[in-house]
Amino acid sequence: MKLDRSIADTPTPVQKFLYARRTSPRLSFDDTPPPNYNRPIYYLNVLKNPIHKPRTEVPAVPEFVSAGMDKNKEAKKMQIKITSPAFEDEGMIPARYTCDGENVSPPLTLDGIPENTQSIALIADDPDAPGRTFTHWLIFDLPPDTNQLSENIPMQATLTSGAKHGENDFGKTGYGGPCPPSGTHRYYFRAYALDSKTGLKPGISKTQLLEAVNEHLIAQGQIMGKYKRQ
Q1: Lowest CB count within 10 Å: 36, 46, 118, 208, which one?
Q2: For the packed helices 13-23 and 39-48, what is the interaxial angle rounded to 10 degrees?
Q3: Is the model's pLDDT at 49 over the cut of 50?
């Protein structure tokens, strides 16, 4: 009997499935096929057509600092409480503080600043922005006795208190309010108590500021507001 090589060399669905599993680290094999569905064929369809069964998207995670250092373990126990007379935590931010209004920074109150704090930093950003987390506000080297940030902090690079502004993702120093392209976005205002001044100059990026925060963090806290354009 003569072997037909064209048939013998044709991989079976099971062989294709096993090969795809070895060579496709992006493919998820945790999903359960529909009832009465041939399992190898099902996964081959997922491999060839990713929209056959959409992968579950991982939700954006707030960028709370937790670098695993002893200081940060202590900081997790020493939370700063942030409140605002303008909006409640997880509430809607008034239009006055957005691109649809006066676009001024909202008033914030900080409680629980540790006694050994030497400076305070604050970051406001939007993890729901398309493609990346969008930075709206960087302010750092605030005096350690700061317990309130008044409404409409000046946009200048260095304030009279000695505090400095970084550059937001609008390409400007100072505050830039919520301006979501669609839907409801979340806006996190995070305060960090540090054991020293950062030594950074005005106009720095969020990455540069977070490096200093990781090095000197002793306490942290946040408030989150939401906004949807009308």
Answers
A1: 36
A2: 50
A3: no
| Residue 230: band (very low, low, confident or very high) from pLDDT cuts 50, 70, 90 | confident
What DSSP assignment string belongs to 202-220?
Answer: TT--HHHHHHHHHHHEEEE
Residue 163: pLDDT above 80?
Answer: yes
12: number of CA atoms within 13 Å, CB side? 6
Domains plus CATH for the chain?
A: 5-52 (no CATH), 70-227 (3.90.280.10)
- Could you give the residue ranges of the DSSP H alpha helices within the chain? 5-8, 13-23, 39-48, 70-77, 206-216
Give the closest residue to 86 by CA, choosing from 103, 106, 113: 106
The pair phi, psi for residue 206, each rounded to 5°, is -65, -35
- Compute CA distances 155 → 48, 75, 167, 203, 222, whole Å: 52, 30, 11, 11, 22
pLDDT at 192 over 70: yes
pLDDT in tens, 175-186: 999 999 999 999
Burial 112-148 (b: 16+ CB within 10 A, else e): ebeeebebbbbbbbbbbbeeebbbbbbbbbbebebee
Query: Could you give the angle at the alpha carbon of 62 between the alpha carbons of 57 and 64, nearest 5°?
Result: 140
Separation of first and last alpha carbons in the chain: 77
Give the position of tokens 């605030």: 142
